[in-house]
Amino acid sequence: MVSRMKWVVLAPLALSLAACESSSRLGSLLSDSGYRAPPAPTAPPPAPPPLTPAPSSSVESSSLPPPPGASSAGNAPIDPSLPAPGQTGGVATAPGAPGLNAPRNPPPQTATAPAVPAAPAAPSRTGLIGNWSVSESSGAKCRITLSSAPKLDLYGAGTSGCQSKELQRVNAWELAGSEVILYEPGGGVVARLRQAGGQNYSGATAKSGAPVTLSK
Known about the structure:
Layout (H helix, E strand, L loop, with lengths): L1 H31 L54 E2 L2 E2 L32 H4 L1 E6 L5 E11 L2 E7 L4 H4 L3 E5 L2 E5 L5 E7 L4 E6 L5 E5 L1
Antiparallel strand pairs: 1-2, 3-4, 3-10, 4-5, 5-6, 6-7, 7-8, 8-9, 9-10
């Protein structure tokens, strides 16, 4: 009876010793064969912290541009048939730009020179032939006749009713360029006259310098 009890007590101990010896042998065998036990599983990484939502910003409707097709006053729709500002007849024109009917290249404006009065026609010998009224320096008037009758190298002339002694001696005349020259007997010059416009000639006597005017 005692021997059975010893056997019951020693049997588990013997089994545990045998198990330890077998495990040590198995470990030595496994170490020699290069076998490595798989690593122990690691804990999963911690989850990232939750994202915080961005703060919501309130936008005022007055700061937003009006939608297409709405006007600035009360967001009323724009009538497409009406021309927009800066447009003429449905075609946009830039401020200050000429209209559609304006010529693109207007003709250059030429400055008109002031009208110049025509120069009087040069006197002619045939135009001087005839009777003329003479105005003397004293204010008296007399007459002179310029004829086409040749007199030496000149043409015949004569006065009537003149108070000036110089004019009373006129007996010939000629046209030298645009100058009318009156002569006395012997070829002396009595007076020289130039055209003063139209049928008027003015000058002065050669000796006294008194003014003389011929007119028709």
